[in-house]
Amino acid sequence: MIFAALVALLVGGFSTAYIASGEVRYLWRAGYEETRILQSRQPIEKLARDTTLPAAERGQLQLVLDARAYAARLGFEAGETYTSFADVGRDTLLLVLSASPKTCICPHTWKYPIVGKVPYKGFFNLTQGRATAAEFEAKGFDTYLRPAAAFSTLGWFEDPLLSTALTRDSVELAALVFHEIAHNSLYVKSATEFNESFAQLAGYRAAEQFFRDRGDSANAVSAANRWLDEIVLGDFYTELVGRLTTFYATKPDSAALDSGRVAIGLWAREQLEGPVSEQLRSMKVAKRPGGPVNNARLVGALIYRTKLQLFEDWYEQHGDNIAESVKALRELEAGAEGKEAYQRLEQALTR
Length: 351
Prior knowledge:
Layout: H1 5-10, H2 14-17, H3 22-39, E1 42-43, H4 44-48, H5 55-73, E2 84-86, E3 94-101, E4 110-112, E5 116-118, E6 121-123, H6 126-138, E7 141-148, E8 161-162, H7 170-185, H8 192-213, H9 217-248, H10 254-279, H11 295-303, H12 308-317, H13 322-332, H14 340-349
Parallel strand pairs: 2-8
Antiparallel strand pairs: 1-2, 3-6, 3-7, 4-5
Helix pairs in contact: 5-7, 7-8, 7-9, 8-9, 8-12, 9-10
C-alpha cells in the first residue's frame, strides 16, 4: 500500500495554512505520525538477538531480515526498508477509506504529488477517517473503511517494520516484506490497481521461492496457493463488477436500484460459497449474510486483484522466475503512467 505520509513529508509550508485547510491538517497529521514512527525505530538485527523478547517474536523479526536480504538478492530495491522496527502503540495503524457512488463502480480518487491519483485515503486519525466516511455516506456514497497494517513510502524513507504487521503468519509476513519492497522496485504513477496487483505477484511468488530455497516446502506451497487463490478471487470480482456495470447502465429508479443490488448481492454470496469456494486451495469462504452489494468494498477488493492473470502469464513467460519477471516488468513500464501500465503489459504478452 502507498500512503500519503510520503506526500506530507515532502510538501513544505504547512504551518502558515494549518487553520485554513482541512486537507493541509490531514497532511500535517500524516506527516506527524510518519515522523513519530521514524523516530521510534529500533534495529531489527538487535531486537532479533534480544533474549528478553518472546522467542516467537524474535523468530518473526529474523524472518523479516532473511526475507529482505533475499529480496535484495532477487534484485528488488530493498534499500534500508525493514531493517528497523517501530511499535505504533496500538492494534490499528491506520484506516483506509474507499468510496463510490451507489449507482456505478466509480471510485472516488484523491490526488497527491509524486504518487498521482489513488482510489483510497489513509487516516492515522481514526476518528477523522470515520467522520470522512460518514460525510461520503451522507452524500449517497457507498464507503469501505478498513484497517491497514503497513504502507510503503516507495523507498523515499527507510520504512520500518511496524508492530501491527507481526500478527501475521510466516507466509503472510514474508509476502508482506516482498510486497512492500516491490513497491520500491516498480511504481507507476496514477496506476494504483496495477501497482498493488503487481506487488501481490511479487509478494507471493517471491515468498514461494524464498521458502523453497530454505527447504520449507510446506510454506512454499502455501505461498503459491495463496497467490493462485487471489487470481480466482480476482476473476470472481471482475465478473461481479461486470454484472453490476450492466445493471447500473439500465439507469434503474431508486426502488429498482435497491432491489437489484440486493439480488446481485445474493448471486455473489452463492458464487462465493459454491463454485468459487470449490476452486480455492488455501482460503475458506465464511458464510455471509444477505444484503446489497457495496461498490466501495468492490473497489477495495479489486485494488489488489485487477487482471492478476496477466501478471501470472508474465511470470510464466519469464520461466517462473520472479527476479527476471520483476526486472523485465520494470524495463517495460519505464515512463508509463495511469492506464498505460496495463496496456503495455497486455501488448507485451501478445507479441
